[in-house]
UniProtKB/TrEMBL annotation:
Coiled coil: none annotated. This is 2-hydroxyglutaryl-CoA dehydratase, D-component. Belongs to the FldB/FldC dehydratase alpha/beta subunit family. Its cofactor is [4Fe-4S] cluster. Keywords: Iron, Iron-sulfur, Metal-binding. InterPro entries: FldB/FldC_alpha/beta (IPR010327), YjiM-like (IPR047678). It comes from [Clostridium] hylemonae DSM 15053. GO terms for molecular function: hydro-lyase activity; iron-sulfur cluster binding.
Length: 431
């Protein structure tokens, strides 16, 4: 099939989804340019990145078409916005879960039509993508799954639920025994909802398979991140971020397979001492709010300012894949308990207290041999902004240089960020 024919097919598909084709075409024009600038300009990229390049190049085509195929066979698609939502339950009901967080400024004005301007860009972009009908994933999802993490999201679910079915999971915001029990109850209720919506029963065997599937994805990501712990870096931070972002919407089994294939190549690189950066390049860890696709701004700035991003303590990073779900439980009830235990290990700033996150950052800084940390906060996210006080204090006490940054999805602060990041890296070089 020729390229024009493929694109023509997608237009038909987007039209059937009720999308605003004219506006969506504008997005299709700017994305390849942005991707080319950040990604294709990198040198010495592993060949295994070809798959991920392809997935991004066809982001609104190939995967949406697969989801629609699944729907044609009677399957359901659930759209999620938070790493607390257990995908295992969805896959166990023969449905598909796909991440929906918006990471582009393109969708923000649409969100601002209904949300206060001082809402975080992730929420505004997510609402805008749905209401403006400019993202196929937002059109395809039969049901959205929200959670009670931050205030902005809680209110956004109410707005979105006027347009699409939304199930909201009530996430406790402390981590006492009774909170874990409450989360297990919430997961059980979610299972009931998913069963009712799909018409499929979640049996212990099916849930075991779902748990294994998502654990396999987690292990592949952990393997990729472990490779970034090497002194000689086999893969750039930009590429690792892209893989983390794709993990949210790609087919989990294929994603794990392709990530493992890339890791085989990276193993060889490590053996042969191949690095994507010069020896002595300062190793930076990012911590903070998630970087939803296609938000590559900060990684790009760091890696074109003489630094290398070696780890992300973020939901598009370690918070997504660290800790496996115990696969030894045999009844649905026990499996749900195992899910609750695993998910409550994630340290999001919506919890109080959230000391576990500080411990994680200190541990990751050691494991990834980090020279400096950038604490990045999406504008108007008061949770992570406030928690930055503890993060930055703990890093100072541990003698790890830290730079606090607040940004959004626009490019208007790129120059200023570049100046600050360059000065930070120069300071690390001179230390
Ligand atoms: S577990 S970080 S994915 S809630 S939307 S909190 S940036 S104001 S995304 Fe998140 Fe789950 Fe926590 Fe992770 Fe702030 Fe914006 Fe809220 Fe956000």
């Amino acid at each position: 099939m020729k390229k024009e024919e493929i694109m023509a097919d997608y237009h038909e598909m987007w039209k059937d989804l009720g999308m605003d084709l004219e506006t969506h075409d504008q997005l299709c024009e700017v994305l390849p340019q942005a991707f080319g600038d950040v990604y294709l300009s990198q040198e010495n990229r592993p060949e295994g990145m070809d798959y991920f390049n392809f997935v991004v190049a066809e982001i609104h085509g190939v995967r949406p078409a697969e989801l629609i195929e699944h729907q044609k066979k009677g399957g359901k698609v659930f759209g999620t916005f938070c790493v607390y939502v257990p995908d295992e339950i969805v896959f166990a009901a023969d449905a598909i879960a796909t991440g929906l967080c918006g990471g582009s400024q393109f969708w923000v004005p649409g969100g601002e039509k209904v949300l206060p301007t001082n809402t975080c860009p992730l929420i505004k972009a997510s609402v805008g993508a749905r209401l403006d009908r400019t993202c196929p994933f937002f059109r395809i999802a039969d049901m959205y799954v929200g959670e009670t993490t931050c205030d902005g999201k809680k209110k956004a679910w109410e707005i979105l639920s006027e347009d699409v079915p939304v199930h909201v999971m009530n996430l406790p915001q402390m981590k006492r025994g009774k909170d874990i029990a409450a989360w297990a109850e919430e997961i059980a209720e979610f299972k009931d909802k998913v069963e009712e919506f799909t018409g499929n029963t979640v049996t212990a065997d099916k849930l075991a398979a779902g748990i294994q599937l998502i654990n396999t994805k987690r292990k592949a990501l952990q393997r990729l991140y472990d490779l970034r712990k090497n002194e000689r870096l086999p893969v750039s931070g930009c590429d690792a971020l892209l893989i983390s972002q794709i993990a949210f919407y790609d087919d989990p089994a294929r994603f794990a397979e392709m990530t493992n294939k890339l890791c085989d190549e990276l193993d060889e690189r490590v053996k042969n001492g191949v690095s994507v950066v010069k020896d002595g390049t300062k190793r930076i860890m990012l911590t903070g709010t998630p970087l939803a696709i296609p938000n590559w701004k900060l990684h790009n700035i760091v890696e074109t300012s003489g630094g290398a991003v070696v780890c992300e303590e973020m939901c598009t990073g370690t918070r997504y894949f660290e800790h496996l779900v115990d696969e030894s439980r045999t009844t649905v009830e026990e499996q749900i308990q195992a899910l609750a235990e695993r998910y409550m290990n994630i340290n999001c700033a919506c919890f109080t207290p959230n000391e576990g996150r500080i411990d994680d950052i200190l541990r990751l800084a050691r494991e990834y041999k980090v020279d400096g940390i950038i604490d990045v906060n999406l504008k108007f996210c008061s949770l992570y902004d406030t928690e930055g006080y503890f993060v930055e204090r703990a890093m100072k006490e541990a003698g790890i240089p830290v730079l606090g940054i607040e940004t959004d999805y626009t490019d208007s602060d790129a120059q200023q960020l570049r100046t600050r990041v360059s000065a930070f890296i120069e300071m690390l070089n001179n230390a």
